[in-house]
Design brief:
The chain has ten helices and 36 strands. With 671 residues, the chain is mostly beta strands. Strands 5-4-8-2-1-10-13-12 form an eight-stranded mixed beta sheet. An eight-stranded mixed beta sheet has the order 25-26-24-23-30-34-33-32. A five-stranded antiparallel beta sheet has the order 20-19-18-21-22. The two termini are 55 Å apart.
Length: 671
Amino acid sequence: MKIIKLFSLTAILLIASKAMAQEFKLGKVSIAELEQKAHPKDSAAAAAILYKKGTARIEYDPNDGFVTLTDVETRIKIYRKEGYDWANQAVWYQNNSNLKEKVFFGDVVTYNLVNGKIEKTKLKSDGVFDEVLSKYVAQKKMTMPNVKEGSVIEFRYTIKCPSPRIIREWAFQSSIPVNYSEFSTFIPEYYVFNSRQKGYLFPKVTTARNPKSVTFNIKERNLGPGSAPTTFSTEKHDYMENQTTFIATDLPAMKDEAYVNNIENYMSAVSHELSLTKFPNSPMKEYSSDWNSVVRTIYEYDDFGPELNKTGYFEEDLKKLLAETKTPEEKIWVIFNHVKANIKWNSYTGYACDNGVKKAYKEKTGNIADINLMLTAMLRYSGLTANPVLVSTRSNGIALFPNRTAFNYVIAAVETPNGNILLDATDKYSIPNVLPLRVLNWSGRLIRKDGSSEEINLMPEKTSADNVFMNYSIDNTGKVTGKTRRQCMDYNAMITRSNIESLKEEEYLEKLENQNNKIEISEYSKTNEKDMLLPIIETYSFTGNNLCELIGDKIYVSPMLFFTNDKNPFKQEVREYPVDFSYPFADKYNITIKIPEGFAVETLPAPAALTMEDNLGAFKFNIAANGDTLQLSILHQINEAIVSTEKYDMLKEYYKTMIAKQTEKIVLKRI
């Protein structure tokens, strides 16, 4: 895959700026803000963030030691009803045995203009509640009171994190305009963080050093006969605090576009990762500085690397399964299917084991790491060169720079002379080198036993085919009767199998009918539904009464019927983000059309062929008439999973031409 340069990764601390923070305070809402009817720079905005200020302070707590306190205050203007969702606020927090964070809401007020005067409505104490999202994460939620069109809402929240090593990412942009966004960090000199920025818009940055002091309470217990009782004392330490302030103004709304992986990948934001600690009278300790050190640290975690060395729990089962295997491919397939069939994914992600591989195997359930580290261990036991691959899922964002929190997933890779075979045993419809779509997120990091690592491409290069064979006849009233045989391979097969399984057959067929111009389906059958290495084939008969247009003595019909692409997903003049198709694909159609007795062809679409530069893709359209039968052959193929913005104009023109051709009508005239 070609490297697409999307982000300018900048060591923000090196940027000099003279920007000074503006004075914004909760409770200082103006009549002008309440009277404003539309955003001055985005009249379509349903709401806007008037200002958002955040601070992350690493401070000493006498009971907990150094902790991270994050304070955020926000003022939002609601212009229209479509912006009411912004009155619902939720803040997630870690809530597990390893890390218990706390969230506190305060100063929650809604402002309205009533008879020319500002009316305040405060949130009642019972308006805030906790919601469990998983065994690891919960969220604090609240709904602003008395919200109307024109309201201004304000709120503040604090997150207390018991770890001084964690500073949350700060997003400057949002799905609505942001007038002003400010984020400051206050970090004792004992902690050194790397700061990185993603997105296209860069904040202004100022730095300062502030003298600080901390007083430790010291308890000394004296032992031995005749010793003095326990003594208490205090010890004061002076240190410097590094302050960094990031300020961004007039940020446009992030507007989603068709085929965008994860819009947050392109959102202006700043992240922090602990680089090292250097306490007085203690040796300096380094953390993440490059990818090798990151993955080496992860590999040494008790719930990662050591789990790969456990084999006793599966050895007897595996010996029996491998007895008849001869080739590496057979070993891979047998082990892969054994894990898929016996261990069910519990829907939790993570590269760290939850239950542990042994317990997961026994109880037949586990998280991503339990299952795929178990798979890796089994592959290694069989004599194959297998290693874990750290991944950041699509929803988690792209791993842009070295840090341990960049990843939230792990898969297995088997090294072969022909390249890596990638495996994920958590999806029942996945096969070797056909990973769940959630995993297709640019690249992953393969870790070997010796601690070395390398970046590997996760994006598919093999084309996934979707072959449609259809024949239909048109009667003189425009009614269409036909049969369809659809053959899907690789990623198309995985998606189709998943869609079929998610619904009862009656519901699935009803959905298929509704999606395809209200056709009626009969004689439905499917082949190779369970045989994952073969293409899945769907066959059905159909009738449709609204697939043609009758105007006077003529019948107009789109030859591809309900398979016609009639909308161009690429309408923007300028594309902001790469086009992410997830995988290369080739859609092929072979269609036979029987025209009604008493009619003749008046107009046929002309053949067409279009090939994009750099082998990006091709479209071919051929149609021929033979008596009362028309034969149609169509190919729509895209050869790259990710298309850079530099190629957007070419791709847009390609889709425009393709859709124009597919929507051309065959005209039949009564004779």
